[in-house]
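Deliverable D2.4 — example input (structure tokens):
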């Protein structure tokens, strides 16, 4: 997350968007048929006590083009829309205690440069962003998946660095695995947040992954804000061993999905 300055511009490849409008299916299908279909769409745990690591969604994309098309965005329920707006506000250097509470204590954040596996580390990441970037603007986004337990959207964010007078625009696929205990409430929480800017997923192995964990730990050593300390009790919440896959490609349990 906060190591965005290491990212470089990417070649844009054409691709089509396939979206699953679960809200529409829910309204038009009998309950028994909808339950059967939704079970096939998502294999996420249904037990909120299960640690965040088990809520990871994996996928390989046919290309690296995650450019959003808002005209094709799925319409979310009001509660889900508020969740997405809070997440985008966090990306936009607007952290608040209430927005960080969108995550469960045992949550995981996973992107190219960070692996933060509790809400205390998550808070450190979000509250550190305004110290590193003078501005972060959401250009546009597109909801591509709206399932029981899962929201995925293409996100385009422009980041302006404080030290270097340069703005970088990044397109990524954001996957929010939802807490089963709150997914139907007015205040939905996230168990696993993945930000995927490449076609491949993460293997969780090697020096690259060691750096991701080290980076999340190092940020906490330099964050002494009262807002972050609000989440200090979440250190070590519900952790379990990180799942490794050997590869970020399809053979690493990351099936190809054109989202």
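Example output (designed residues):
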């Amino acid at each position: 997350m906060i190591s965005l300055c290491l990212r470089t511009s990417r070649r844009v490849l054409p691709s089509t968007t396939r979206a699953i409008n679960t809200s529409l299916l829910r309204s038009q299908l009998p309950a028994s048929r909808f339950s059967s279909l939704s079970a096939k769409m998502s294999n996420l745990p249904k037990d909120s006590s299960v640690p965040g690591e088990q809520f990871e969604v994996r996928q390989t994309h046919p290309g690296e083009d995650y450019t959003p098309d808002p005209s094709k965005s799925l319409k979310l329920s009001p509660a889900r829309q508020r969740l997405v707006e809070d997440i985008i506000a966090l990306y936009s250097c607007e952290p608040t205690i209430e927005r960080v509470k969108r995550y469960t204590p045992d949550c995981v954040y996973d992107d190219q440069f960070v692996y933060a596996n509790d809400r205390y580390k998550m808070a450190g990441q979000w509250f550190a962003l305004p110290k590193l970037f003078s501005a972060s603007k959401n250009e546009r986004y597109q909801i591509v998946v709206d399932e029981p337990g899962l929201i995925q959207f293409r996100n385009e964010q422009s980041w302006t660095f404080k030290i270097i007078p340069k703005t970088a625009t990044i397109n990524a696929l954001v996957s929010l695995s939802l807490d089963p205990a709150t997914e139907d409430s007015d205040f939905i929480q996230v168990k696993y947040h993945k930000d995927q800017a490449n076609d491949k997923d993460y293997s969780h192995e090697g020096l690259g992954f060691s750096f991701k964990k080290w980076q999340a730990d190092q940020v906490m050593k330099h964050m002494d804000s009262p807002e972050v300390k609000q989440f200090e009790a979440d250190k070590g919440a519900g952790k379990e061993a990180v799942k490794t896959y050997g590869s970020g490609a399809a053979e690493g349990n990351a099936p190809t999905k054109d989202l």
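The helical segments are 22-28, 31-41, 78-91, 97-100, 119-132, 206-221, 226-229.
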